[in-house]
Design a protein that fits this description.
It contains five helices and six strands; from the N terminus they run ββαββαβαααβ. It is α+β, with helices and mostly antiparallel strands and about 190 residues long. The structure holds adenosine-5'-triphosphate and magnesium ion.
Length: about 190
């Protein structure tokens, strides 16, 4: 395992972080999926990443989130270069991702999906307390989602809202979200 020194202070709860990539390049064998991409996303701003299928949008986000380790290039959070080895590592820097698909377990309820998705899940889950916390969390949300029904029974819009809640619950300070028209997922 590669040890690295954390040189960026952990984000404060509720405070947005900015990110920059410099020369991000990702090769799969001899194929270059991402070629020298530099972006700057200031804290608290919204950006759309547009490109045709296969352009490299997901690959860029996966490199930022630590799913992939870029072939070359660097990532900075709040102007300090960081080494993100895994999505869990990314979460500690305040980076989150709302996934395109396959992130909800259809046979589990909304509540169960929210809890198992958290960055830190205890070996033994205190469901009574989790339900109370989730109910309090939902009270603060602008829309309601049924939490006691299996996800397979939810409408497409409710599933999308649940995915967004997953990201909000892990309290990232920067969140990547795919397009909302989930019926048009392409992978
Ligand atoms: N793990 C991988 N191994 C090999 N090639 C890959 C891998 N992941 C992505 N690619 C290739 O890299 C290129 C970029 O893929 P990517 O998924 O980033 O595109 P995208 O812009 O997100 O497309 P879409 O709009 O379809 O989601 C594609 O040609 C894809 O086939
Ligand atoms: Mg994609």
């Amino acid at each position: 395992m590669i040890a690295h020194i954390r040189d960026t202070p952990l984000p404060q709860a509720g405070r947005a972080v900015g990110i920059q990539t410099i020369g991000m390049t990702m090769r799969f064998g001899s194929f270059t999926a991402l070629d020298n991409v530099s972006i700057d996303i200031p804290a608290g701003t919204f950006h759309a990443l547009l490109g045709e299928n296969g352009a490299g949008k997901s690959t860029l986000v996966k490199c930022i989130m630590g799913f992939y380790h870029q072939t070359s290039g660097s990532l900075s959070v709040d102007d300090r270069e960081v080494s993100v080895q895994s999505p869990r590592d990314a979460a500690t820097y305040g980076l989150g991702m709302v996934y395109q698909q396959f992130t909800l377990v259809p046979s589990l309820t909304g509540a169960e999906n929210l809890v198992i998705n958290r960055t830190h899940v205890p070996a033994v889950i205190n469901w009574a307390r989790e339900r109370k916390d989730l109910a309090a969390f939902m009270e603060r949300m602008p829309f309601k989602i049924p939490l006691d029904r299996p996800v397979s029974e939810l409408a497409a819009g409710e599933k999308q809202k649940l995915r967004n809640r997953q990201a909000a619950l892990s309290r990232p300070q920067l969140s990547h979200s795919r397009r909302a028209d989930i019926g048009a997922d392409t992978g």
